[in-house]
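Please predict the structure of the following assembly.
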Amino acid sequence: MSRKIILWVSVAVLCAYIVVALCAPLLTPYSPTEITGSPLQSPGDNHPLGTNDLGQDIFSQLVYGARITLLYGFCAALLSVFISTSIGIVIGYYGGFADELVSRAIDIFMPIPVFPLLIVLTAFFSPGILTISLLMGILGSIHGIRIIRSQVLSLAQTNFVEGARAIGAPDFYIMSRHILPNVMPLVMAKFVSSSQRMLVMGVGLSFIGMWDTTTVDWGTMIQKSYTSGGMALGLWWWLLPPGIAVVGISLALAMIGYSFEEKFNPRVGVNRI
Amino acid sequence: MTLVRIEGLGVRFSTRSECVQAVDTVDLDIARGDHIALIGESGCGKTVLGMAVMGLLPKNAWITGAVRYRDQDLLKAAEPDLQRIRGKEIAMIMQNSALSLNPVKKVGDQIAEPLLIHHVLAEKAAHDEIVRLLTAMGFDEPERAAGRYPHEFSGGMRERILVAVALACKPDIVIADEPTSGLDAGVKSRILALIKQQMADRTLFLITHDMGTAHYLCTQIAVMYAGEIVETGRTHDLLSLPMHPYTQGLLASLPSAGLHPIPGMSPSPTHLPGGCRFCARCPASIERCSREHPPLISTGERLVRCFLYD
């Protein structure tokens, strides 16, 4: 199967997830937290995926969970890309002391694994969607700053940046109008790959319970079914759907990310042959 | 009337181990309407000189002297003041057209940039001006050309676009740094004709290594060697009767004069000789040349840095 088909299938899958998240109230009559049946019902007419131990509809949880899961995934990715792009461009363009300072700080933070650090930090702060997106966004930007900076270092030396200076363009203008459009493809690729990372990281966090338990996302669903005996009882309709949902979106985003990377960085393609 | 006066300009680059004297006490007056060429071989400091006038040298450059423009010294001017002057009053046609345009911006937008940055025209009027400029630059379909990206044009066309960018704000003086490098002869002569036509009532400071280009575009020539000016004069006088042995060597090395290259290499800018810098390659050198550094000697209308005319 060619790369192009993989890309389009992945985009279609991603779009399907987004549509489900947006149209959640149209797809299911129940609220995800409402008790709408007797506990641990098997899939049936009223509850296509049965109910959990509290009698909440699992299908509704799955559909509404898409909202929360996609929300923190994209929010965190957006934030991380924003931070890494702006800081990367500024330090790469100006260089000097600020560059040195940020680069050394990155050197210190790079080897620290993000996920354990995130667990420690969420334990300190209140675990709302906003806080967690914020934390993931900041921690996830570290790697991106480095990539963008290295790209900007070479761009800042190009003739057309010199030319922009020669027509009297101020620094901010050069950074926003000349350098940013040139790093944009990289930023887009980074956004896709980091939304996948953020999404899986968020699901992981909620699975281990570092999460506000009143909001339902796929991580809390998996955790619930795991701890409340869904697994032991063999209730596959409780455990599998959120798991498959996570794998599906994560795969789609990863494939889109690879295709982008290949498009904007031809060397990757050569290496794969 | 002097427009730009370069006084004792020196540029030094210091690296950790060495010190490179790129430009050494250069004095040059550019009057309104002048067409002056600065000629020299690669590495003689001519591009650095142009960059110094624009205030675009990197931070590790150590600059001495003064560049007087209007009532200020450009070397001491604050960056925002320089930004107001660059592109609007002093414009530059950059070397290497293939790399001097942003690959991801439409050329129309790039030509409009100086107009919009300096608030010369509003967006709408700028668009009409772009079309006018592109027409003047010899584009058949200026509207369509404005909507294209730099890679869609040939080298000659890109050079025309760079000329349009430089001329957009109707600057007082245009500094052209090797405007035709990398173009083939036919395209080159058309570009030069365009520049000559556009520069008819403007001031041009041309930086080149090519005698032919200088001869065609400029009324005055300054010859630069190893960071300093060795001879200046009117184009016709200088070419018909070169005084400095280096200028004579340059002219003799042209294909039309029989392609006799000057023996040896220019001195390294890190270790400049104490006496005359051309001494080691000079066929007419005398004992004094290696001892003493010759000053610029005035002979009639011309200046020459050689003891032969002392």
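The longest strand of chain B covers residues 2-14. The CA atoms of residues 223 and 247 of chain B lie 7 Å apart.
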